[in-house]
Design brief:
The complex is a heterodimer of chains A (about 110) and B (about 625).
Chain A: H1 14-22, E1 28-29, H2 30-40, H3 49-62, E2 65-71, E3 77-83, H4 85-111
Antiparallel strand pairs in A: 1-3, 2-3
Chain B: H1 2-15, H2 17-41, H3 46-57, H4 60-71, H5 74-92, H6 94-123, E1 134-141, E2 144-146, E3 148-149, H7 150-159, E4 163-178, E5 181-190, H8 194-198, E6 202-205, E7 220-223, H9 225-231, E8 242-245, E9 248-256, E10 268-271, E11 284-292, H10 298-315, H11 317-320, E12 323-329, H12 337-371, H13 373-381, H14 386-422, H15 438-463, H16 468-473, H17 482-518, H18 543-558, E13 579-582, E14 598-601, H19 608-611
Parallel strand pairs in B: 5-10, 7-9
Antiparallel strand pairs in B: 1-2, 1-11, 1-12, 3-11, 4-5, 4-8, 4-11, 6-9, 7-10, 8-9, 13-14
Helix pairs in contact in B: 2-3, 2-4, 5-14, 6-12, 6-14, 6-15, 7-10, 12-15, 12-17, 14-15
Classes of the chains: A alpha+beta (about 110), B alpha+beta (about 625).
Chain lengths: ~110, ~625
């Protein structure tokens, strides 16, 4: 896949966090989620579309997001995902974990 | 919350697989469309925009597969697909399937049948409430257990503290006559309350009251459900009615619940009421059962009975010196070591049969596997993983084992009917209820799974590690590599070794049986007819009358055409004796009465030896004196 130098592959497990975060405000379909993540990260984070959908289905199966069929901006049927209550909690937990982790790594790097 | 939602999704995924797949397809397609639209707006041609969208997405089918995995139904899906495939395979090779099923049916069927007996006799708890509390209390002398004297029993009952209750019983025969049709019925003579203590349930009426254990009030009777329905037409008003036993009138006070009690040898129960002359310490004729108080261990009970019997021996040294008591768990107390050993031996033998069946089926599967090599190679080249091939083969053998097992359980059901029918009466405890129950079915299921895995592993392992390109290059010809050939050969060796062991064991057992049927018992068994007849003591005032009755009876039988000899006795050859006494040898010091040697004896008329063809090696037969019959 064509990827610029400045684009990073996602760490295992971070995709879930990004999806949850992207869905915090409103419901979105899969394509919009990948666009949103790319946009907000200023094209640094590239979502592998092949692994986006398995991740969405996994999160739905876990009960953190739920899906409904709706009409996309193109006027076609699309599956819209939104956060559930437990998903919201999970987002908090994972964001917290992530911050702790990155802080720690940053501190280690500074020290070196 | 999570789990039911999960279950809902799984079920939905299972039953609406097509709908789910269509939804997934639609979702991914709409994604591609949106990506293509974006690419289009970036200035690509429509065709190129769609192509790029596809490329950007990556593996479309594998993404779908991963989505299905994420929903977590793939196991069930795979299983049902594998099963469908397996059944198609079975239908294609009916000969193989029939032989494999037959082998597994015999293996699992015989195991289920024998395990039913093992379970009922050795493993199942006794069908009484709190069966662990029930114990037998035996008298013990010189390390041998013996029945209990009435005097000892009553003293034990008074002096022991470890029992909630203690009861005694003995046995007897009664002439039961219902509507002018007499029959000898075996009866238990029970101390009042024994049935309740044991926890045997009543269908009608009650156990004996304490006062019914007193002389003069003991003409009451309890009968089994079987006797009640066979001889009394299931009369619902039987309680309170009179029936004739030994020509005397007894009041029916209870009918036992159907089931276990119907397997008792004794179909009647009457109360035990001691006559004054029975209250001795030297006649051992009672069986004693107790129910321990909650929390009392066998050891504790034995320790207490030790001190109780020591105390009794001090008071009655003449009869009780050297006698102690032994408290034993009721479970297995009446099952001989030989029976237990024999049962486990049988279990081992049928275990071998199952193993042989498994090895056999494994070998057939392996042979079939070589034929299927090409099919496997094609499936592997189409993307089937090794683990998937392995599961496929294992599913096939498990399906075989389960079908074979279900057939086997039906076979076991039929075998059990035969086993119960040909078992010599009372060779297993009457409590043992030999049938297919839940624990037995669990055992069968375990046997099926074991068989499935045993005979499936080898072919599954073999087929999942074939060299693909070689198999395809063989252009459809199945090839045998030396290594695999060796494996099949070793399976045949195992099978042969198992079969030989079994054959050897069976041969030895048959030979022993054959020899046993040829053992010279010392009496003639052909052309001899026997029957039992009990004489009501109330009808005959003394020995003279009894003897006269037997004499008349024997004369009449002797006069029948075709009868060459006739005799009466209190027992049959080799069946053991009903009477015993201690003796001392003339000319030697008599010694302590309690430690004198004893012997069982049978009382016979002089014709006994001629009738049974028993040879007198030395001396002569006692002359016919009326005194021979006294007693």
């Amino acid at each position: 896949m064509a990827q610029g130098k400045s684009r990073l592959d996602l760490l295992q497990g971070t995709l879930d966090l990004l999806i949850l975060r992207a869905l915090r405000a409103d419901a979105m379909h899969g394509w919009a989620i990948s666009e949103r993540i790319q946009q907000i990260s200023r094209d640094v984070l590239q979502v592998n579309q092949g692994s986006l959908y398995p991740a969405l289905h996994r999160l739905e199966h876990r009960g953190w997001i739920k899906a409904e069929w709706g009409i996309s901006e193109l006027g076609r049927r699309a599956r819209f995902y939104s956060l559930t209550t437990s998903g919201r909690k999970q987002l908090e937990i994972e964001a917290e974990n992530w911050n702790t982790l990155t802080d720690a790594i940053a501190r280690v790097l500074r020290m070196a | 919350m999570w789990w039911w939602k999960d279950a809902f999704l799984r079920l939905r995924a299972l039953f609406f697989r097509r709908e789910m797949d269509e939804e997934l397809q639609a979702e991914l397609r709409s994604h591609l469309e949106m990506q293509a639209r974006k690419n289009l707006s970036a200035g690509l041609t429509p065709q190129e925009a769609r192509r790029q969208a596809r490329l950007q997405f990556g593996g479309f089918e594998s993404a779908k597969e991963e989505c299905r995995d994420a929903r977590g139904v793939n196991f069930v899906e795979t299983l049902s697909r594998d099963l469908r495939y397996a059944f198609r395979g079975f239908r294609r090779t009916p000969g193989f399937t029939a032989v494999a099923l037959l082998a597994l049916m015999l293996g699992i069927g015989s195991n289920t049948a024998i395990f039913s007996v093992v379970y009922a006799v050795l493993l199942a708890p006794l069908p009484y409430p709190n069966p662990d509390q029930l114990v037998m209390v035996w008298s013990e002398v010189n390390g041998h257990r013996s029945p209990v004297s009435a005097g000892d029993y009553l003293d034990w009952k008074r002096q022991s503290t470890v029992f909630q209750d203690v009861g005694a019983w003995s046995g007897g025969n009664f002439n039961l006559s219902v509507s002018a049709h007499p029959e000898v019925v075996r009866a238990r003579i029970n101390s009042p309350g024994l049935l309740n203590m044991q926890g045997i349930r009543f269908f009608l009426g009650r156990d004996f009251l304490p006062e019914e254990g007193e002389l003069g009030k003991e003409h009451v009777v309890v009968m089994t459900h079987k006797l009640w329905s066979e001889r009394f037409g299931s009369n619902p008003h039987i309680v309170g009615q009179q029936i004739r036993l030994n020509g005397e009138s007894y009041t029916v006070v209870g009918v036992l619940a159907a089931g276990m009690a119907d397997r008792f040898e004794s179909q009647l129960v009457v109360p035990l009421a001691f006559k004054p002359e029975q209250l001795t310490h030297d006649r051992h004729w009672l069986l004693v059962m107790g129910r321990l108080k909650p929390g009392v261990a066998l050891q504790q009970a034995n320790a207490e009975m030790d001190s109780v019997t020591r105390h009794i021996a001090e008071i009655y040294p003449a009869s009780n010196k050297a006698w102690s008591a032994s408290v034993e768990s009721l479970h297995h107390d009446f099952t001989g070591q030989d029976t237990i050993k024999g049962l486990w031996l049988l279990m081992g033998a049928v275990g071998f049969v199952l193993l042989i069946a498994c090895v056999n089926v494994a070998n057939m599967l392996l042979a079939r596997g070589t034929v299927r090599q090409k099919e496997v190679a094609i499936r592997a080249s189409l993307g089937a993983k090794r683990s998937q091939l392995f599961t496929q083969f294992l599913t096939e053998s498990l399906a075989l084992a389960l079908i074979g097992g279900i057939l086997g359980v039906s076979l076991a059901w039929a075998m059990l009917k035969a086993i119960v029918a040909i078992l010599p009466p009372f060779s297993i405890p009457t409590e043992a209820d030999v049938r297919l129950n839940l624990p037995v079915l669990f055992f069968s299921l375990a046997a099926m799974l074991l068989a499935g895995v045993l005979c499936g592993c080898a072919p599954a392992w073999q087929s999942s590690r074939w060299n693909l390109s070689n198999s395809l290059k063989e252009s459809g010809r199945s090839s045998l590599t030396p290594g695999r050939h060796g494996f099949r050969r070793s399976l045949i060796v195992i099978e042969f070794a198992l079969a030989l062991t079994l054959l050897g064991g069976a041969g030895l057992a048959l030979r022993s049986f054959w020899k046993m049927t040829r053992v010279d018992l010392g009496f003639r068994q052909d052309h001899v007819l026997t029957f039992a007849l009990s004489i009501p003591t109330t009808r005959f005032s003394g020995p003279e009358q009894t003897v006269a009755f037997y004499r008349r009876l024997l004369d009449k039988i002797q006069a029948l055409p075709g009868v060459s000899d006739a005799s009466a006795s209190t027992g049959m050859p080799v069946l053991g004796t009903d009477f015993g006494m201690s003796f001392s040898i003339a000319g030697q010091p008599a010694g302590d009465p309690s430690s004198r040697p004893g012997a069982g004896f049978t009382m016979v008329t002089p014709e006994y030896f001629d009738t049974f063809g028993i040879e007198i090696v030395r001396g002569r037969v006692a002359a016919d004196k009326a005194a021979n019959l006294a007693g």
